[in-house]
Amino acid sequence: MDFLNVVVRFFQEGGPFMFPIAIVLALGLAIAIERFVFLGSARRTNKKAFAQIEPMLSARQFDKILQLGQQNRAPVSRVIAAGIARLKLSPRREDVEYAMEEGLMETIPRLEKRTPYLGTLANISTLLGLLGTIIGLIAAFSAVANADPAEKASLLSQSISVAMNTTAFGLIAAIPLLACHSLLQTKTTEIVDSMEMAGVKCINLLMSRQGVSASTRASDE
Question: Quick one: pLDDT band at residue 21, thresholds 50, 70, 90?
Fold first, then answer.
């Protein structure tokens, strides 16, 4: 209960700029939670989808892979389906790679969506804290100028202490937002790298199967 009272008093003494900083912090945390949930879901669905696609590739069940890419929410299924669709038109490895890269480029913006906002919101909260402190100091010096000389030192120290609360709260809001931004970028990079690795595995498997089929036809002839 004492901690809650300290927090409430700290917030009240910070001045009007504490409210926009609190709004920025709440908005940033909401974005961070939504992104963590989305990326965690994407990672799980990717693993599940690739486990389904790999035996289909070995069996060359391309129609099922295309159907899975249309129905499944996993990003990796859409990337591989794009390569399979191009394989039906052109068996060249380069064309399949380009198609998968195009599918990956379409998927990455969904993974990175709203994550850059966290860095911007962290900067905004810091700047709001500094602005609140500066305005508070201006008001403090204006009030001290008309105060009794014996009370000037006491009033000035109290006013500066209150003004610094805004800067402190701005930094309190900025630090977790920056940490979330860094963590989300790392998770996004890991997902993209895993999708690229899955794409390379699929291409190697497809090309090796094609090589086996070609050599089998040649020996039969």
Answer: very high
CB-based contact 141:27 (threshold 8 Å) = no
Please, how many CA atoms are within 13 Å of residue 194, restricted to the half-sphere of its CB?
21
Cα torsion 205, 206, 209, 214 to 10°: value is: -150
Instruction: Identify the CA nearest to 106 among candidates 124, 83, 90.
Output: 83
Rounded to an integer, what distance in angstroms lies between the CA atom of residue 10 and that of residue 171? 14
Q: What string of DSSP letters covers 70-127?
A: HH---HHHHHHHHHHHHHHH---HHHHHHHHHHHHHHHHHHHHTTHHHHHHHHHHHHH
Q: Is 85 exposed, middle or buried (0-12, 13-18, 19+ CB in 10 A)?
A: middle
pTM, 2 dp: 0.80
Alpha-carbon distance of 181 to 120, in angstroms, equals 10
Question: pLDDT tier at 165 (50, 70, 90 boundaries)?
Answer: confident
